[in-house]
Design a protein that fits this description.
Elements: H1 15-26, H2 32-48, H3 56-62, H4 68-79, H5 86-97, H6 109-121, H7 134-158, H8 164-177, E1 181-187, H9 195-215, E2 227-230, H10 232-235, H11 244-265, E3 268-271, H12 279-296, E4 303-308, H13 314-328, E5 332-337, H14 342-352, H15 363-379, E6 384-389, H16 393-406, E7 411-415, H17 420-426, E8 434-440, H18 447-458, H19 463-468, H20 474-477, H21 481-484, H22 516-528, H23 539-558, H24 561-577, H25 579-590, H26 594-618, E9 622-624, E10 630-638, E11 641-645, H27 653-664, E12 668-672, H28 678-690, E13 698-700, H29 705-714, E14 718-724, H30 727-738, E15 747-750, E16 755-759, H31 765-777, E17 787-793, H32 797-809, H33 829-845, E18 847-848, E19 866-869, E20 884-890, H34 894-903, E21 909-913, H35 917-926, E22 931-934, E23 970-978, H36 986-990
Parallel strand pairs: 1-2, 1-8, 2-3, 3-4, 4-5, 5-6, 6-7, 7-8, 11-12, 11-14, 12-13, 14-15, 16-17, 16-21, 17-20, 19-20, 21-22
Antiparallel strand pairs: 9-10, 10-23, 18-19
Helix pairs in contact: 1-15, 2-16, 2-17, 4-5, 4-18, 5-7, 9-11, 11-12, 13-15, 15-16, 22-25, 23-29, 24-26, 24-28, 25-26, 26-27, 31-32
Length: 991
């Protein structure tokens, strides 16, 4: 069905082009020089009479985020309050305080309260990573208790109250000191991972609205009453575009309950802004609610949402909301913010290979956008009541100037605990009103919110930080963002995502499946696709193919490496052009979900380009040092005909990577794809042929491994084998190669693993749940890197396991071609039956955590997520190649856990979730694995960024997609020439 946000422009546009539009819109609408003159007295007053020592300005002056001390306090504030066990709390405190020097702090109230005590207390803390003795431990417990109190004191400055009643009491006290204040209460908590979480947040919001309503005057306008801010992601565990229908069906009624309560008391209810990929969905929820407001309480003017100025679509978004207001004859309250997810949006665009960033990449550009948005809000005053959230004195003065010119009512907003000094001066004007965005909740829940605000306002470029730095002069502090954004004044921007790796290797272009224009070509390609039939080769044909490959080797090997590399680059470009068709083929033949299909095509493209570049690097002759009178040169060339045996779980990326590595280094290739996915391999081969690879240099041989694969490996003429698959098959190949007469043939094997994730009690449960669900269940668990064994600290195990259980139950298993599907079928009936046997065994031998679950869809071979608790790490002896997770609790020394994981014999991936930096490094150093991931998921290694491969039972190395991979495909030759035999070293004589 058509979406309601068609009026919004494409999110990934030219930043320079959008900026030019914003500057043009402000032409003649703003006199920044006059605004700076108005703001200067406020700045001087704040610097002459600083706000309380715990306010943001003073905190940043004392401990800048860029300093070791500021970073230590931030990390402690983020984690310490949620650590339940003393041993880990001691380790975390020692780790963070050990990195900082609090002795040198200035002589201030804050310094006297914190720095001296912390500096002295460090003597009672163990060295990071060392086991403390009894006396030190007793002292450490005291230090941790003191540090906890300090962090709680810090939390009280940024959280208005731990309950709504406490928050309202504090708000009433603040109003006695400052009459023209109102509040928007934000019940602390990040997005829900489970439906139980969402219902708990819903009850919290309902309770808060009821409490606020008891003191509100329903006869006053919502702009005069206190209000509440809500997060849609807190009210639904799957608030994402792929779950559109479910969200509209389940979330809208929940939010409407809150709207009814707010409307009855004439309160302001604001939907907070979230990530860019949720914008369209947020707007559809907003419009659905606006329709209900228009039908049932059209007199209510308190419904609204927050708008992020750092989005390049911000002005158009305001126009869209204003259009809705006029359409439904409503007036919305709209809070303009700069945005709090900037770094996450930048990273997402880079990781997905999007064509541009959805946010401005430079602060002055965001400042210009904010001013243009302010003008747009003021222009839309018939449908919008503008609310301007900012701590920047210059921006405040500019808004006052623009609003006064137009005579439009508005309000300013600030965050509780921030910007107090500037607003103390601004609010001396009784005509100006301010609403305080006031977080409410338990201090342990403040962590993610607090850290995000500290980073947002504590960056060196922020006004709040510079206000506290008296070395920043008035002209610099109040510099015009319009002038900073003129082309002549613009600093170098971030490279666009396609240019992430420099001009030498373009980043593969990806797709944002939340954008209709990006996903429509995929769905169209899928509807039109007919999977081609690939004939099977016989053993005799395999033998003949080896002879052709051996004969073709000399010609391909002597082809200049630049020409070979150019062929691979042309193939990569062709894959990029055929992205939609290749994705559709992956969905149909390999049962991939759309997100996995897009990622795999990108990985194949990256392999082709990376190995093309690296071949030119490693195969360039190297001149070696030596005595005068001779030259010494190291040269590399291909070995001969290679057998490349690729798996079905990455039938395009691994196939392309193996083949590209062999071809780039001058080898000929006999490519044996997995039996289940030959059509994908055929399409890749066709593209390589079209790009200039000779037919005899690359031959595709489809068929069973027992016949075609075994025949290829057994042939006497092959020079090497590269294999990705099971450890069992790798050992069969290894024995077959060892039994052959003639040369010792190299084997590159990348096999599976019992991949573990270690979680200690400092880890953020929501982050752990996200990482576990992605690592264990994405791709139906059919990744060699997938999480198989979760080791969670006993002190937090109950809560973490419960959250993961709830999140896993929210996953959709079924038809992979549907956007809402999270888990498609496993590859075939044989895999389904094997996994099912393991699940049945675990129901007897372990504790089921998800019950007996079946897929809701009738799609064959679909297995819903499975999760079991086992008694020990040693019980996990086999890799289960599917969506099956085993969980074990641990206590004591985390190093012992890593040693038990090492003892399993596999060594592919390891996840570590901890806020103790020294612990993460120590555990990674002790782990016998190829890839360690700290505080993130453990899948999706990126070519050239995270070279991938393991050791032990998980493979031979070298790591694919890394700088050492191609060397294994090469033979080395050292050429030494005695130049004195032909008359001596002329350079020596003439030098």
């Amino acid at each position: 069905m058509p979406r309601t946000t068609d009026r919004l422009p494409f999110p990934y546009r030219s930043e320079a082009g959008v900026l030019a539009q914003r500057l043009a819109a402000l032409q003649g609408a703003l006199d920044w020089a006059a605004a700076a003159v108005d703001a200067a007295p406020w700045v001087r007053a704040v610097r002459e009479n600083p706000p309380p020592f715990w306010a943001m300005e003073s905190l940043l002056k004392e401990y800048p985020i860029s300093s070791a001390e500021g970073l230590a306090l931030m990390r402690l504030a983020e984690a310490l309050l949620r650590v339940p066990d003393a041993e880990t709390a001691i380790a975390l405190t020692a780790d963070q305080l050990g990195r900082a020097d609090f002795d040198g702090a200035a002589d201030s109230t804050l310094a006297r309260l914190s720095s001296t005590a912390i500096a002295m207390s460090k003597k009672f803390l163990p060295e990071a990573g060392n086991e403390p003795g009894l006396m030190v431990k007793l002292g450490a417990r005291t230090v941790v208790a003191a540090t906890l109190r300090a962090v709680q004191l810090l939390g009280r400055q940024f959280v208005l109250g731990q309950t709504i009643e406490e928050g309202m009491k504090e708000a009433a006290s603040a109003r006695k000191r400052q009459a023209n204040l109102s509040f928007s209460f934000d019940m602390l908590g990040e997005g829900a991972r489970t439906d139980a979480d969402a219902l708990r947040y819903l009850a919290s919001y309902q309770n808060a609205i009821a409490a606020i309503a008891r003191t509100a005057d329903p006869q006053r306008a919502p702009s005069q009453n206190d209000g509440i801010s809500i997060k849609l992601s807190a009210l639904h565990p799957r608030f994402e575009d792929a779950q559109h229908d479910r969200v509209m069906r389940e979330l809208v009624p929940r939010v409407w309950q809150l709207c009814e309560g707010a409307a009855a008391a004439n309160l302001n209810l604001t939907i907070d802004a979230e990530e860019v990929d949720r914008l369209e969905l947020s707007l559809e929820v907003f419009e659905a609610l606006a329709k209900l407001v228009a039908q049932h309480c059209p007199q209510w003017q308190g419904f609204g949402l927050a708008l992020q100025a750092y989005q390049t679509r911000a002005v158009e978004l305001i126009e869209h909301v204003a259009t809705l207001g006029r359409q439904y004859r409503l007036k919305f309250m709209c809070r303009l913010v700069k945005g709090a997810y900037w770094d996450a949006e930048i990273k997402r665009a880079q990781e997905l290979g999007l064509p541009a960033y959805p946010v401005f990449t430079q602060k002055p550009h965001t400042d210009v956008s904010y001013l243009a948005c302010a003008q747009a809000l003021l222009n839309a005053s018939v449908a919008i009541y503008p609310q301007f959230a900012t701590h920047n004195a210059g921006t405040i003065a500019a808004i006052l100037q623009m609003a006064t010119r137009q005579g439009v009512p508005f309000e300013l907003q600030r965050l509780h605990g921030m910007g107090e000094g500037i607003y103390r001066e601004v609010l001396k004007n009784p005509a100006v009103s301010c609403r305080v965005y006031a977080p409410v909740g338990a201090h342990r829940d403040l962590l993610a919110y607090l850290v995000r605000r500290l980073l947002e306002n504590g960056a060196n470029s922020s006004f709040v930080h510079q206000l506290a730095d008296e070395s920043v002069g008035m002209d610099e502090l109040l510099v015009s963002p319009l002038e900073q954004s003129r082309p002549a004044a613009m600093a170098a921007a971030l490279p666009l995502p396609p240019d992430l790796y420099g001009m030498a290797r373009p980043n593969s272009l990806g797709l944002d499946l939340a954008v209709v224009a990006h996903r429509e070509p995929l769905l169209a390609a899928h509807a039109a696709l007919v999977v081609p039939t690939v004939p099977e080769a016989t053993a005799a044909e395999a033998q003949a193919a080896v002879a052709k490959a051996v004969q073709a080797f000399a010609g391909w090997n002597h082809t200049p490496v630049a020409e070979r590399a150019a062929s691979l680059r042309r193939a990569a470009d062709a894959m990029q052009q055929q992205q939609a068709r290749l994705c559709a083929l992956l969905v149909k033949e390999a049962h991939k979900g759309w997100g996995d299909a897009v990622s795999e095509v990108r990985e194949a493209i990256d392999f082709l380009r990376y190995y093309a570049n690296d071949a030119e690097r490693v195969m360039a002759p190297q001149t070696l040092p030596g005595p005068t009178g001779e030259s010494n040169t190291l040269r590399l060339e291909g070995r001969g005909a290679w057998v490349c045996i690729s798996p079905w779980n990455f039938p395009l990326a691994i196939f392309a990577g193996q083949v590209a590595a062999a071809l780039a280094t001058g080898n000929t290739v006999l490519a044996k794809p997995a039996e289940q996915t030959p059509a994908i391999a055929l399409e890749a081969v066709k593209l390589l042929y079209a790009a200039g690879v000779p037919a005899n240099a690359l031959q595709l041989l489809h068929g069973p491994g027992e016949t075609v694969g075994a025949s290829l490996v057994a042939q006497p003429g092959i020079a090497g084998v590269v294999f990705t698959g099971s450890t069992q098959v790798a050992k069969i190949i290894q024995r077959a190669l060892a039994a052959k007469d003639g040369p010792i043939i190299p084997l590159i094997a990348e096999t599976g693993g019992i991949n573990a994730m270690l979680v200690d009690s400092t880890a953020l449960p929501e982050q752990v749940a996200d990482a576990v669900v992605q690592s264990a269940f994405r791709s139906a668990g059919q990744r060699c890197s997938a999480l198989r064994l979760l080791c969670v600290h006993e002190a937090i195990a109950d809560g973490v396991i419960e959250m993961i259980e709830g999140a896993a139950k929210e996953l959709v298993a079924g038809n992979p071609s549907e956007l809402a599907t999270d888990l498609g079928p496993v590859i075939d009936a044989e895999a389904f039956e094997g996994i099912t046997r393991h699940v049945q065994r675990l129901h007897t031998d372990a504790k089921p955590l998800l019950g007996s679950r079946r897929a809701a869809h009738e799609q064959p071979h679909v297995i819903a997520p499975q999760m079991f608790e086992v008694g020990s790490i040693a019980e996990v002896t086999q890799e289960i190649f599917g969506p099956v997770l085993q969980v074990v609790r641990w206590g004591g020394d985390p190093m012992a856990v890593v040693q038990q994981i090492n003892a399993l014999g596999y060594g592919l991936t390891l996840g570590i979730q901890t806020r103790i930096d020294s612990r993460a490094l120590a555990l990674a150093g002790a782990a016998r694995v190829g890839n360690v991931y700290v505080n993130r998921n453990m899948i999706g290694a990126v070519v050239g960024v995270q070279p991938f491969g393991g050791e032990g039972l998980s493979g031979t190395g070298p790591k694919a997609g890394g700088p050492n991979y191609l060397l294994r495909f090469c033979a080395e030759q050292t050429l030494t020439i005695n130049t004195t035999a032909a008359g001596g070293n002329v350079a020596l004589f003439t030098g």
